[in-house]
Fold this sequence. Notes:
28% of the residues lie in helices and 25% in strands.
Amino acid sequence: MILNNIFDAIYVINIDSEVDKWKLVKSELERNHITNYTRFSGVIIDGESTVKSRNLGCTTSHVNIIKEVKRLGKENVLIFEDDVMFDDRIHDYIDIINNFIKDNVWDLFYLGGNHEGNVEKVNDNIMRVNKTKTTHAYAINKTCFDNIINWNINMPVDDMLIKHIQRKKNSYCIYPRLALQRPGYSNIMNGFRDHTKVLKDDESI
């Protein structure tokens, strides 16, 4: 079992000018046997001249993917950003992810994220989340496609997801978190960022 067999579609967001990031993420996906995916060209707004325009471009990219997968009749979609990297243990959790996705009602399912709010452990490997940020590796179910398509885009995508979807209680994350963000240049923040520490779980919890 691999991620390609769990989700109806997989998309990877990459800005056209970020050639090096594309090479790195392709290598990371191939290393983890993720081969059937669609590269999505990141949206550029106002020449990316401000943090706000870069955030709105990112949010618009996520929304446009949902518009496309709905048009194609997909049941769900797994979205990666081009800085995603995976914990080597991810292959040990594939069956757990698959069983949850197939057998439960869900709107969002994160492979990793920055939990700023309370989390509720559903079982040893699944957490219900209500304020989880970062969107480098998460799945969206068709249950909330229309919600997302109808957004008035005015804030970063992770904040939009918290406001409009996570608070409905059907958003989850695998435990331990298995997808991290590669340390490096952040296009949105226009500088180096390393979020790996806040995206990893303490196994003693």
